Amino acid sequence: MIRDAAGRFGHTPALIIVLCAAAAVALLSVASGAYPLAIPDILKVLGGREANDPVASLVLLEVRMPRFLLGFLVGAVLAVSGALLQGLFRNPLADPGLIGVSAGASLAAIMVIVLGSTWLGGWLAFAGEWALPVAAFFGGSATVFLAWRIANRDGQTQVATLLLSGIAINAIAGAATGLLTFYATDDELRSLTFWTMGSLGHAGWDELMIGAPFMILALIVSPFLARPLDAFLLGESVVGHLGYPANTVKKAAILVVGLGVGAAVAVSGLIGFVGLVVPHLVRLVLGASHRVVLPFSALIGGTLLVAADSLARIVVAPAELPIGLMMALIGGPFFLGLLMRRKVV
Amino acid sequence: MRGRMLLIALCWLIPALVQAEPMRVVTADGAITETVYRLGLESMLVAVDTTSGYPEETQALPKVGYLRALPFEGVLAMRPDVLITTEQAAPQENLERLAKAGVQVETLPMAWTPEASLERIVTVGEILHARSEAQDLVAELSSEIRRVQQSAVNRGSRPRVLFILAAGNHSVLLAGQDTAASALLDAVNAENAVTAIQGYKPASREAILASQPDAIVIAESTPGQFDISNWQEVAHLDAWKSGHRMVADSMFLLGFGPRLPEALDALNRVLPSGTAVVSDDS
User: Fold this and answer.
1) Quick one: closest CA in A to B102, which residue?
2) CB of A35 closer than 8 Å to CB of A62
3) In Å, how far is B69's CA from the nearest CA of chain A?
4) Which of A112, A225, B132, B220 sits at 20 to 30 Å (Cα–Cα) from B173?
């Protein structure tokens, strides 16, 4: 699909650069961390042999590997979701937060944190350690569904109404979150503060098992929406004339974002910036066609998030910075620089 | 020739055998860290968490982050034999992984009474194979605590105390019921003047005036954080004017570690005796 988009192979150099960057970051992420591992040990473990350091295989296979995979998936899904929404709304400021998915997911997560010992005790007893991610996932999907239902008139999805209802839902979820924060105990307050800053610090195969199916599904479906979304750029009325079922496309895009971001937020907390900025980055460099923007957003989003996560656990080692913070710290100045350079040229 | 080889080998071996590997310990809780220092076992410490700021020497140790967000690799990188923390430690996944990696993970209960905090000191001592030192320390601390509590009982009255937590320039919180602050007051035969609040809530200026306390305690997370000129309501309270007030470090007051007797004593001293202040709130 990438080759198809490149047409005259115009994007091949960019693709090679991005793939190299992704590979470099993958190596960085697996080979570096607070716990020092010798290169031979890493190679031995990856080759399936016994390492000299008995802890090496635990660190690599149980912690760094799932963390890398989860980070890449989350970054890819957030960036692709941002690209889809920006295309759908024809609005460069759209991001997964806008239609309420992040707010809904965090409200559900914070409900589990604050009410887990009282009203939601039954849910906690039933779902155990899965209580928070599963609730966050349903919270995110439910808010998207709600926004979509409100925006649905006579079988047509009104994109402007979707945006506005998303803003309203955000406000309501924000207020409910604030209320819960007010009633939270000291302990709950601290855990929810950390949750909202985002982290891959607890990532393991369990989190990957919960989140990955939905995120992979979202990534697989999104390329099919590229051409119709290009048509959206010409105006919503044009989409039908070009032979695409406009309403199905909208539904599919919203569903993909709801499931993908719901799952991403569920396993990693709130990580901003990727969804908004990565698609812009791709558009600035490679053009606005969604056949380019979607796959490149996925690759760059994943790479960027893994890079940020690697740095987050190196810079203040043995402690770790929250990933959301790191993301904004790296990405913000980089994006500003790109914007400024573009103005001069 | 052979004899010389043996001699060299012995010279290598004997020190290694005599100096048994000292235990490597990571503590993730301010009060537990203080306990390790009070037991004189600080040479075992290889890292602490960010809530461990006392004594001063902790500054020189590596910090593994905050106890509610402990990194797996960060802790493991210090190659500890033991991680001693409280049940507040999170995330659970990382504690489980550390245990899997061979670290002895000890999560002690929270201590909000003098008895529980002394018990915790004994537990820390047992974990670090210093049971008798810990028991000596506990005996010393408990006699100091008993002395303070006796004088608190002799006071006769049960003063009402306004407890303020200043955690940042603009974050001034009132301690309500079910808090470590309330528990501390209870330990010196005093009670929380703020009854309508659960936990720590942003200070309402009217609630401060309405509380009409017999004494005021201000716990700062860093020294000088509470600026009385911004809080005229507090300055207007009779208790403030009459000097029944104290400003102290929040870890000192609320840590429930080995400094508890000192904290109780300091607190007890600012409480008015039954005859000095007539507080009859009908």
Assistant:
1) A55
2) no
3) 8
4) A112
3-state secondary structure of B88: coil
Exposed / middle / buried, residue A166 (Cβ in 10 Å: 0-12, 13-18, 19+): buried
Nearest-by-Cβ selection for A202 from B65, B93, B200: B93
Domain ranges within chain A, ordered by starting residue: 14-344
Cis bond upstream, residue B55 (ω within 30)? yes
Euclidean distance between CA atoms B163 and B169, whole angstroms: 17
B115 domain residue, yes or no:
yes
- Tell me the ipTM for this assembly: 0.80
Chain A (56-115) residues lying within 8 Å, Cβ to Cβ, of chain B: 58-59, 62-63
CATH topology of domain A14-344: ABC transporter involved in vitamin B12 uptake, BtuC (1.10.3470)
Task: Write out the residue range of the structural domain in which residue B67 sits.
Answer: 19-138
CATH no. for residue B116?
A: 3.40.50.1980
* Residue B131 neighbours by CB distance under 10 Å: 13
Q: Is residue B130 domain-shared with residue B164, that is, in the same domain?
A: no
Using alpha carbons, select from B245, B238, B252, B234 the residue that is nearest to residue B271.
Answer: B245
CA B122/CA B131 separation, integer angstroms: 7
B78–A contact, CB cutoff 8 A = yes
Sequence-distant (6+) residues with CB within 8 A of B164 are B172, B173, B174, B175, B203, B216, B217, B218, B219, B226, B234
Q: Do residue B132 and residue B166 come from a single domain?
A: no
Residues of A in contact with B219 (CB under 8 A): none
Instruction: Report if residue B61 sits inside a domain.
Output: yes
Kindly state whether residues B95 and B206 are assigned to the same domain: no
Indicate if B113 and B32 belong to the same structural domain. yes
B64 has a chain A CB within 8 A of its CB: yes
Clarify whether residues B25 and B131 are in a common domain.
Answer: yes
Burial degree of A98 (CB within 10 A; 0-12, 13-18, 19+):
buried
Same domain, B96 and B192: no
Per-residue pLDDT of chain B (282 residues; tens, 9 = 90+): 556 656 665 555 555 544 567 899 999 999 999 999 999 999 999 999 999 999 999 999 999 999 988 999 999 999 999 999 999 998 888 999 999 999 999 999 999 999 999 999 999 999 999 999 999 999 999 999 999 999 999 988 999 999 999 876 667 889 999 999 999 999 999 999 999 888 888 888 888 998 999 999 999 988 888 888 888 889 999 999 999 999 999 999 999 999 999 999 999 999 998 644 444 443
CA of A314, closest CA in chain B: separation in Å? 9
Give the helix ranges, DSSP H, for A32-118. Answer: 39-46, 56-57, 65-89, 101-115
